[in-house]
Write a structure and sequence with these properties.
Length: about 450
């Protein structure tokens, strides 16, 4: 069934007949355009982003998956979001929200990793399989936009963190646009160096062997330092701290789940390199769950003992040896930027395959450097969060259709597309009118259930 209006053996009303005619012409046009683009592709420019990966490229075992996603889960932004939980909710409530939200969010990542490894497809490939080769360009393009935004955001975080360390700890006068430009260019240069190399080699040789031990050591040190400060103030007082009632448990969980969910459009790009589905899923879950819980808890600890004024960098520098530990966390932030720009490049290659994934990576990195210099990130952050909300119902549909029939070259799967759009409306409605209930889980559950129920009607 191709999603058209029902066929009636009797004469149909003119309006219904016209609607069916318009729909069939639209679908025919989309299929014709898709075939022409495929036909006009240059020889030798096979679209690797839309084809299952070869067995020879499946080089990630459990250790590589766990190392990658532990590293991806660590970041200054995660610690800062953890600090937002208190005093809106009590300390015990925050801990419950952190553990439950991290488990649920990481389970979604693991599920997506299982699908990506089993199919060998990228995130763009999964979107094509679920929504059709024509309509899938909509979520793919939105994903590219959000990944450009998050890469830009990461460059700003690394730049501002570097300047803050220079001013607060080293006493350097680093104010002015020149130092801002130099710091941005520095981190962009590092990112360009990483993008120009092999993704699989980066994960196996650098992150697993060198990056991971250093970032774990820095997190252990910061945790030990702030645990000592809490101990000095009294553990009983820490655990007895009440919230001000501005945040409920479900809203706090939504805030925690939001961080792993933001990685959903990237997971398959890495999981398809896994040697087997079980290690891809369990490695992704273990690595991300541990780092997400750890960084959120560290954020709560820091917010509890830090002065009411100041920023996160200043708070972390309060710890003895905080400069070294914070610098290591800041260096690890480059993994997040790399993860964003690599997946953005894979998605861009799925649309324009004349440029390789590496060429797209270099181009997007340079674009993000320019955006980091000119965009006010305070105003773009809500836009990025809005884009992230689009992908919660999107993956509800993708996961719900995992074992259903693929689009098989069709330009559009109308039922899947309608469920996704309805899920976006639901998410935004809950966020605006009932935020205390949390929007992530309801929109994800409903889109998944609808996609699961309707998959048999689409030929599965």
């Amino acid at each position: 069934m191709r999603g058209r209006l029902p066929f009636y053996t009797q004469a149909r009303p003119p309006l219904l007949a016209r609607a069916n005619f318009v729909w069939s012409r639209l679908e025919s046009h989309m299929e014709h355009t898709t075939k022409n683009k495929a036909h006009n592709s240059s020889p030798g420019t096979a679209n690797s982003a839309l084809q299952p990966i070869a067995d020879s490229e499946r080089v990630f075992g459990w250790k590589e998956q766990a190392s990658l996603w532990f590293s991806m889960g660590v970041g200054l932004l995660v610690i800062q979001v953890g600090a937002y939980l208190v005093p809106g909710i009590s300390t015990t409530g925050a801990m419950v929200a952190i553990v439950l939200g991290s488990i649920i969010g990481s389970a979604l990542l693991a599920w997506t990793a299982h699908v990506g490894c089993a199919s060998g497809l990228t995130s763009a490939g999964l979107m094509h399989r679920t929504f059709g080769s024509g309509f899938a360009r909509v979520p793919v393009l939105l994903n590219i936009v959000q990944l450009i935004g998050w890469t830009t955001f990461e460059l700003v975080i690394m730049r501002d963190g570097t300047l803050a360390i220079g001013r607060n700890s080293l006493g350097l006068a680093l104010d002015g646009s020149v130092f801002t430009l130099l710091s941005t260019a520095l981190w962009t240069g590092v990112l360009l160096l990483l993008v120009s190399g092999s993704m699989t080699r980066l994960v196996r040789k650098i992150i697993g062997r060198f990056g991971l031990p250093l970032v774990i050591a820095s997190l252990l040190w910061l945790t030990w330092q702030f645990a000592g400060k809490i101990q000095a103030q009294g553990l009983d007082a820490f655990w007895a701290q009440k919230g001000d009632g501005s945040m409920g448990l479900l809203a706090a969980m939504d805030l925690v789940i939001g961080m792993p969910v933001s990685w959903l459009p990237l997971v398959a790009d890495y999981a398809r390199h896994g040697k087997d589905r079980r290690s891809a899923a369990s490695g992704t879950f273990t690595g991300y769950a541990i780092s997400n819980i750890w960084c959120y808890v560290l954020g709560v600890m820091v917010a509890t003992v830090a002065p009411k004024d100041g920023d996160l960098v200043s708070w972390l520098l309060l710890a003895q040896g905080g400069l070294i530990a914070l610098s290591l966390v800041l260096v690890d932030e480059i993994d997040n930027a790399y993860g964003d720009v690599y997946s953005g490049s894979v998605s861009a290659h799925s649309i324009v395959s004349r440029l390789s994934i590496r060429q797209w990576g270099l181009a997007l990195t340079l674009l993000c450097m320019v955006l980091a210099m000119v965009l006010p990130m305070q105003s773009i952050e809500p836009f990025l969060l809005m884009l992230s909300s689009i992908f919660v119902p999107l993956y509800g549909v993708i996961l719900g259709r995992t074992r259903g029939a693929a689009a098989n070259g069709r330009a559009i799967e109308p039922v899947a597309a309608a469920i996704w759009i309805g899920g976006i409306v639901l998410f935004q409605g809950i966020s605006n009118f009932a935020p205390e209930w949390g929007a992530t889980l309801p929109s994800l559950a409903i889109t998944f259930a609808l996609a699961w129920v309707t998959r048999a009607r689409n030929g599965s």
